[in-house]
Amino acid sequence: MAISPLSDFAYKQVLAMVEGMQPDQRLPSEEDLSRRLGVSRPVLRQALARLRTEGWVHARRGAGNFVGKPPALQSATFGPLHSIPDMRSFLEFRCLLEAESAACAARCGDPRLQDEISRRRRLMESALAHGQPGIEEDIAFHAAIAAASGNRFFSMTMNALAEQTRVSIKLIRELSPQPMVRRAVDVRNEHRAIDDAIRAGDPDAAREAMLNHLRGGLMRLFGSEARAAEGGHPHAHGDAPAPGGL
After folding, report:
1. d(C-alpha 117, C-alpha 195), whole Å
2. Positions of the chain with pLDDT under 50
3. Together in a domain, 207 and 164
4. Ramachandran category for residue 43: left, alpha or beta (phi over 0 → left; psi -120 to 50 → alpha)
5. pLDDT tens-digit profile of 50-90?
6. In terms of residue numbers, what domain contains 141?
7. How far apart are CA 171 and CA 226, in angstroms?
8. In a domain, 236, yes or no
9. Which pTM does this prediction carry?
10. Contact by Cβ (8 Å): 66, 26
């Protein structure tokens, strides 16, 4: 059976939501989801059926839909980060992966998926404003960008790397010499720059904004060594990127 554009939209939206949740966490009801996404219940059910087939979601009789773990990701085990060199390699890999994910999201130009990116960004801003860590909201923001890329392998890779991402965010925050309030402002501005570039449909600006954000993590941990590893490429106006919270 052919997948309708609305069903594909609902699939991508729910997938982005699932990627920001924990295994076995309950999804909102079908009524709530259909209202939030602006689609009919039959359209939503087609999307949920696709997610169940792929293993992202599983249903419990009388209880609703819950986050699953796709079989394809069970074998995609990258292993823990064992050392600081591991952390550096991981952050460099994220630069390559997520810069292109952001560029693809800008190129794809689906306004409803872009709205989900903005919504996730605002949720993180709210968490930080209320003194919460915002780590899960941070991960969900990046997952929404991957979902908006139009390439499911970006989403699958981001999902498989969620635990490493969680560890890297915690470590960077612990080692940062910046006051928490200053760091929160930097992260907010970096995320807004990424969001704005994607919404503007500018792949080059989206790629650069994501690189600026992720290189902040490298600068936080490795300082001038990270800049040297980049080949001394100057940033806008010759300034180094503001340290990002990732």
Report:
1. 7
2. 1, 75, 228-229, 231-244
3. yes
4. alpha
5. 898 888 899 998 889 999 876 555 545 677 777 888 888 89
6. 84-222
7. 16
8. no
9. 0.68
10. yes
